[in-house]
Amino acid sequence: MSPDEWQAHVTTEAALAMGRWLEARGRLDRPIASLTRRDLECMASNAISRFIVLSSERRTAAPDKEERDALDLLLMG
């Protein structure tokens, strides 16, 4: 998977994590403006968690050193 394909995949997975969080709370049909700050923080937390998992997996399977190094920097903050 190319870096661009991987980025698209991660973006989709993060969006799905947010949707799953909303759906589990029966709020999928509500406008985003009606969500509380806590709701938004929880959605963001789920999306970030999914990104970290996918990035860690990608780092392990990264085809070249440059990509592994970039993911190391990203994951370490």
TrEMBL record:
It comes from the Bacteria. This is Uncharacterized protein. It comes from Paracoccus limosus.
